[in-house]
Amino acid sequence: MTPLSGNPFTLGVASGDALPDSVVLWTRLAPAPHEPGNGLPADGSIAVQWELSEDDAFRRVVQSGTDAAPAADGHTVHVDLRGLEPDRVYWYRFRADRWISPVGRTRTAPRPDAAVATARFGLLSCQQFDEGYYTALGHLAREDLDAVFFVGDYIYENAINAQGGARRLADPLASFYGHVTVNLEDYRQRYALYKSDPELQAAHAAHPWYVTWDDHEVANNYAGDISQDNDPVDQFRARRAAAYRAYWENMPLRRPQRPDGPDMNLYRRFAYGRLAQFDILDTRQYRSDQAYGDGWHTPGPETWDPARTITGDAQERWLLDGFRASTATWNVVAQQVAFSQHKETPDDDARVSMDTWDGYSASRDRVLAGVGQAGIRNLVVLTGDDHVHFAYDVKKDFDDPDSATLGVELLGTSVSSGFDGDEHPPDWETTLAANPHLKYYDGRRGYVVVTLDPQRVRGDFRTIAKVTTEGAPIATAASFVSEAGAPGLQGA
């Protein structure tokens, strides 16, 4: 092998999709991260060694091996380790040529029959590079967490100026980033830019992640094969294939998630002892086109049409079958867009977003009916997308405040998208009045820490005052709990 021209581990390391006996380790070789091709050959592969240890000094290495980083996969490595001990912390690292990667820390899940006393997870979404620094991720890296849920908009497809937008970088970015992402090289380089951020690297190295996408990993508000601009379907499917391929390459995902052209099986299920079942959804790839041309509209026949779906039929059946089979205390659904009804005003003809579950209310009704039929008493929905913190009670009938509460939804704000934000945005009072099941609204950046134990779920809403300058402190702006068997959010 020709010696590498420089340190290939400029994009860090990651782990994810933890099982009781397995975890995926990831890295991407990029000695020149901001150049197309990353300074590596356009064909062939590079041998990458890896080690997994019971200690961070690597005195007790339990597994090691060598995997290829093929040019065809963007010189990425996905090591699907097996035979690990359940509920165990491990450390890992890679080596290529004479270069050694940063050390990552990961953790396996508990055995399916384990009685888990408590578990803590981070909830993240929406990290637009040019709208702010990843200060939240630096703080999250220092949290004591078992894992992280990232629920969409890991990258954005927009053109980025040489100063990195709100970051106002002194060293200008390569001109390559100054156009919208369309082809595979565009998407690969967009991940390289985002992953070059040291705080994002720290958050990946500190915790295993469970990931799913929303729209911006491809293009804003796309629906299945239909782009926001109604591009020719064949043209958009080619773009989607490029985006899906780059997504798989750059995430700690297993081979079954590897895309086949414009199709990728991303929805999947994980058990966390007897404490929780995690159902991770994909509400982009299989959805019907948004009703009434997208945007905000008063609900009507299109939004109520039972033939329209946000999940697709197969994924919906899979989700409801999983509810029926679940024996976990908590059923946690990690997904992209607001599940609970969210009216713009208190008026009878108030508008709702056609891009959220409000625009696919028959889909939501079927899911909630499935919750009831399965006897699920502890539903927790984890969401992103809105660039604000919301905390909702999930109602059997959102138009009747006195109807049964079937679960809770913790909707986490963005890492950086939307710039700094405000604690009380201009619509704060109107929104709370319009939605009596909405218990909390905060427009600042940050993340949520979700704690589960057999008695309750707790959501701690962390906020940062500014992301347009570096180094802002983190604070817990609000905390809510919901008791097992008696769903409904109460201030903690």
TrEMBL record:
Domain PhoD-like phosphatase metallophosphatase, residue spans: 121-461
Superkingdom to which the source organism belongs: Bacteria
Signal peptide start-end: none
Transmembrane region(s): none
Record domain Phospholipase D N-terminal: where: 11-108
Protein's recorded name: Alkaline phosphatase D family protein
Source organism per UniProt: Streptomyces roseoverticillatus
